Amino acid sequence: MKLFSALEISGSALGAERQRAEVVVANMANAENTRTASGAPYRRKQVVFASSANTPFPFVLAGFNRLAGGLPGVKLQRVVDDPTPPLMRYEPGHPDANAQGFVAYPAINPITEMVDLMGAVRAYQLNASAITASKQMIQQAIELLK
């Protein structure tokens, strides 16, 4: 493992967790959206992570080019729709009500979304701490070489 490998791995995880948080926020923002462009209610989105053999982590500020070799990391492979069927609520006066007076609402539980968001934030914080610890170890190694 090279000197900056830990930084690249944690950097890839930071990007993945940021994207995860964005998906959760989009779910929460659309929790009451009964009609999308397709005419159906909003579908809850979920992220699928995968390992990445080549994680780009820019060293622009340090003046380094990307280190050679494939390093393990994490990436957002895709965002998928939750297969849970929409929740049907009886609201006969609603503009999106069907003939029986039921409106299809997204199957989004705000508590589940908040737990997912807290998990993404905590994972982001832990990876940021790992980057800080790696930087300190690199600085201490440089001090020993002086």
Describe the structure.
- It is a single chain.
- The chain is α+β, with helices and mostly antiparallel strands.
- It has one domain (5-145).
- Helices cover 42% and strands 17% of the residues.
- It is built from 2 helices and 4 strands, in the order H-E-E-E-E-H.
- The chain has a two-stranded antiparallel ribbon. The chain has a two-stranded antiparallel ribbon with strand order 3-4.
- Helix 1 packs antiparallel against helix 2.
- It starts with a helix and ends with a helix.
Tally of individual helices: 2
Tally of DSSP β-strands: 4
Rounded mean pLDDT score: 86
Question: What is the end-to-end distance?
Answer: 23 Å
Number of domains: 1
As a percent range, the share of helical residues equals 40-55%
Largest sheet: 2 strands, antiparallel
Strand order of the largest sheet: 1-2
Work out the strand percent. Answer: 15-25%
Q: Give the C-alpha Rg.
A: 22 Å
The helix/strand series, from N terminus to C terminus, equals HEEEEH
Indicate the structural class: alpha+beta
Query: Which ranges are low-confidence, i.e. pLDDT below 50, for 5 or more consecutive residues?
Result: 55-68
List the helices and strands and how they pair.
Blueprint: H1 5-29, E1 45-52, E2 73-81, E3 87-90, E4 102-105, H2 110-145
Antiparallel strand pairs: 1-2, 3-4
Helix pairs in contact: 1-2
Features:
146 residues, alpha+beta, two-stranded antiparallel ribbon
